[in-house]
Design brief:
This protein is 42% helix and 9% strand. It is built from eleven helices and eight strands. The protein is globular and about 55 Å long. The N terminus is likely disordered.
Length: 303
């Protein structure tokens, strides 16, 4: 059966959007070549930018992450590497000549809230005297999807402020750690998100950051549902190894990552508030992937 006109339009829109993403990322990748040359003029900043201390310090937390409390970099709230670049005349242009850019992102860890947790929320609201909240919690007991199946609500709120974001979905299999939903069951929702101009990326599972096979398998699962290549990535629990995760992502065909940040502290892990191309301190070469550094994670603010 031949494709309908609406299907052809949808494919055309997705192809155009993919090309726009690709052009923007390619422009940034050309600029980061200059970025490295400038930062190398200041050895201290170069060591910070390249995460040199993470090669020397073997200690990690329970999720194999390099936490801020182990770092010698104390001015984590100051993007000192980006400030230095700016002072040297480096300029990274953004679409439509905007003076700055903010990347809004959502890690889709869970969609269906278990009834037991909903019941606990209802009792907690009742104990606190919140009648309206209690009634809302009781109503949610009737629905498998409420309250987290709210992609359209999130998109409507962002559209109100003329913003768009990225949704990173887990693509795990039954039996995998933190498996919470079957990505194939979300084909309609993912298509809706993508068709509306928001981005769909992969939220890699617990082993994807250090296991190339797991990474490739999860990427394929999401691409089957999305219907086109997945270029964006963030790992579950911000699990990340410098520089191995970047290398694995590059080989798997991702164009950018946005995992790189501290789970225990907001701020700028390597002094950068700009996108950058990582540098492998061991091999002395750049890694062919763009990093959009994570600055603030909601769970960190709650801690």
């Amino acid at each position: 059966m031949p494709p309908t006109f609406s299907c052809i339009q949808t494919v055309a829109k997705r192809t155009k959007r993919t090309r726009t993403y690709t052009r923007f990322i390619n422009n940034i990748l050309r600029l980061v070549m200059q970025m490295h040359e400038i930062l190398q003029q200041d050895p201290e900043l170069w060591n910070l930018f390249t995460c040199a201390e993470e090669y020397r310090i073997p200690l990690r937390d329970g999720y194999d992450r390099f936490p801020h409390y182990l770092s010698n970099h104390r001015d984590v709230f100051v993007p000192c590497a980006s400030q230095y670049l700016s002072g040297q005349g480096y300029y990274l242009g953004y679409p439509d000549d905007q003076p700055f850019a903010v990347c809004l992102t959502h890690d889709i860890d869970m969609i269906y809230k278990p009834a037991l947790f909903k019941g606990y929320d209802a009792l907690k609201s009742l104990k606190g005297g919140g009648i309206a909240k209690t009634l809302a919690s009781v109503w949610q007991l009737r629905s498998k999807k409420l309250p987290w199946f709210n992609f359209q609500e999130i998109m409507a709120l962002e559209e109100k402020y003329e913003a768009k974001s990225s949704f990173y979905f887990l693509a795990l299999a039954p039996g995998d750690q933190d498996y919470a939903y079957n990505i194939r069951n979300l084909e309609a929702e993912i298509g809706m998100i993508d068709d509306a101009g928001w981005e769909v990326g992969l939220h890699g599972g617990h082993r994807a950051y250090c296991d190339p096979h797991a990474l490739a398998t999860e990427k394929r699962r999401l691409e089957v549902v999305l219907g086109r290549p997945v270029i964006g990535y963030r790992n579950h629990y911000l699990r990340f190894q410098v520089p191995e995760t970047w290398e694995n992502l590059s080989r798997a065909g991702f164009r950018y990552d946005t995992t790189f940040g501290h789970a225990d502290c907001v701020g700028f892990r390597n002094g950068m508030c700009h996108p950058f191309k990582p540098y492998d301190f061991r091999t002395g070469r750049q890694i062919d992937i763009l990093e959009i550094p994570l600055t603030i994670m909601d769970c960190t603010l709650d801690a």
